[in-house]
C-alpha cells in the first residue's frame, strides 16, 4: 500500500466554498449600503461588471504592491463608475465586504465528515493562495482550525502556488519525506503544477468533472471528498 503520513490541502473550493462565501458577503454588502435601491441597479449587472475588474486588480496586486483593502476599494470604485454611479462609497463597501467575507464559512460537500476521520491519523496542513487574515478567520469561524497545525498562506509566506518553494516550506515544516505527502486541490495550474514541481503526489479534486488537457496526469482524481479515504489506503 502507498502509505502517506501527511496530507496537505488547498483551501478555497477544495475544503471551503469560496464562491458561496464571496457571493453571500457581496450581496449583503450591497444591500446594507442601499445599492439595490438605486434606479437601474441590479445584482446581475453589478456582478457582471465587478468580477472582471476585481480579478484584474487581484492578479496585479503583487506587482503594484496593493493591499487587499486597496484591491477591493478600487474594484468597487471602478464598478460603480462603470455603472454610472458615484464611486465615493467604495472604501466603505470594501470595509463591509471584507468583514463579512472573513467571518463567513461555507464548506464544500464532505469537508466536515472527512477531517475528523483524518485527524490524528495524518499530519494535516493547508497551502493556500490567499490572504492570511481571511483564511485564518474563516477556518476559525467554521470550527476547523484545530485540524491544521501547518498553514502556508501565500501573502504570509511571500510565495504563491505554483511556485515549488511554498511546497518546499511545507515539506520542511512537516518533517516527513516527499513520497509520504499527498496534496489535494482543485486547480490543475496552481495545485497540480506546484505539487509536480515539488515532487509531491497530487490528488485532483474535480467535483464538476472538468476535462484535463493532454499531458496532465494527476496521481489520483476524485469527484467527492469522501473518495479520499479510498485513495490514501489503495493498493499500488
UniProtKB/TrEMBL annotation:
<dbReference type="InterPro" id="IPR011951">
    <property type="entry name" value="HAD-SF_hydro_IA_YjjG/PynA"/>
</dbReference>
<protein>
    <submittedName>
        <fullName>Noncanonical pyrimidine nucleotidase, YjjG family</fullName>
    </submittedName>
</protein>
<dbReference type="InterPro" id="IPR006439">
    <property type="entry name" value="HAD-SF_hydro_IA"/>
</dbReference>
<dbReference type="GO" id="GO:0008253">
    <property type="term" value="F:5'-nucleotidase activity"/>
</dbReference>
<dbReference type="InterPro" id="IPR052550">
    <property type="entry name" value="Pyrimidine_5'-ntase_YjjG"/>
</dbReference>
<dbReference type="InterPro" id="IPR023214">
    <property type="entry name" value="HAD_sf"/>
</dbReference>
<dbReference type="Pfam" id="PF00702">
    <property type="entry name" value="Hydrolase"/>
</dbReference>
<dbReference type="InterPro" id="IPR023198">
    <property type="entry name" value="PGP-like_dom2"/>
</dbReference>
<dbReference type="InterPro" id="IPR036412">
    <property type="entry name" value="HAD-like_sf"/>
</dbReference>
Amino acid at each position: 500500500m502507498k502509505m502517506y503520513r501527511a496530507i496537505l490541502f488547498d483551501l478555497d473550493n477544495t475544503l471551503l466554498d469560496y464562491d458561496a462565501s464571496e457571493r453571500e458577503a457581496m450581496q449583503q454588502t450591497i444591500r446594507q449600503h442601499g445599492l439595490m435601491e438605486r434606479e437601474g441597479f441590479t445584482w446581475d449587472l453589478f456582478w457582471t461588471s465587478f468580477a472582471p475588474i476585481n480579478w484584474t486588480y487581484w492578479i496585479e496586486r503583487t506587482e503594484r504592491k496593493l493591499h487587499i483593502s486597496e484591491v477591493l476599494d478600487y474594484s468597487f470604485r471602478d464598478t460603480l463608475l462603470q455603472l454610472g454611479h458615484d464611486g465615493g462609497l467604495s472604501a466603505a463597501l470594501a470595509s463591509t465586504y471584507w468583514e463579512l467575507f472573513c467571518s463567513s464559512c461555507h464548506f464544500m460537500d464532505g469537508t466536515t465528515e472527512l477531517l475528523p476521520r483524518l485527524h490524528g491519523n495524518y499530519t494535516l496542513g493547508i497551502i493556500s493562495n490567499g490572504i492570511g487574515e481571511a483564511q485564518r478567520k474563516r477556518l476559525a469561524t467554521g470550527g476547523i482550525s484545530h485540524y491544521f497545525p501547518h498553514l502556508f498562506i501565500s501573502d504570509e509566506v511571500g510565495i504563491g502556488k505554483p511556485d515549488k518553494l511554498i511546497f518546499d516550506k511545507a515539506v520542511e515544516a512537516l518533517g516527513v519525506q516527499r513520497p509520504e505527502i499527498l496534496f489535494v486541490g482543485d486547480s490543475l495550474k496552481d495545485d497540480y503544477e506546484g505539487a509536480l514541481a515539488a515532487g509531491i503526489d497530487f490528488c485532483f479534486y474535480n467535483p464538476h468533472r472538468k476535462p484535463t488537457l493532454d499531458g496532465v496526469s494527476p496521481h489520483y482524481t476524485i469527484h467527492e471528498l469522501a473518495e479520499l479515504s479510498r485513495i490514501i489506503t489503495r493498493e499500488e
